[in-house]
Amino acid sequence: MPNHFNERWGGPIKDLLLPLSAWNSLRDEGITTLEQLRAVADQLEQLPGIGVKIARIVRDEITRVSTLEG
Known about the structure:
With 70 residues, this protein is mostly helical.
């Protein structure tokens, strides 16, 4: 069985690469833009399906993509 936790996938937010489970959780919460994601970045662990490790990955990706933009 594949381990999708270690794989990174592109999704609806340009340049962001996340585990498939993170994309699924964000989709379920209606988060489809970087601005929406930034707004909830400090509360990611409270979203269904996102734990501490996934939240850290998402925050690291937000930082990486923000660096690309700036």
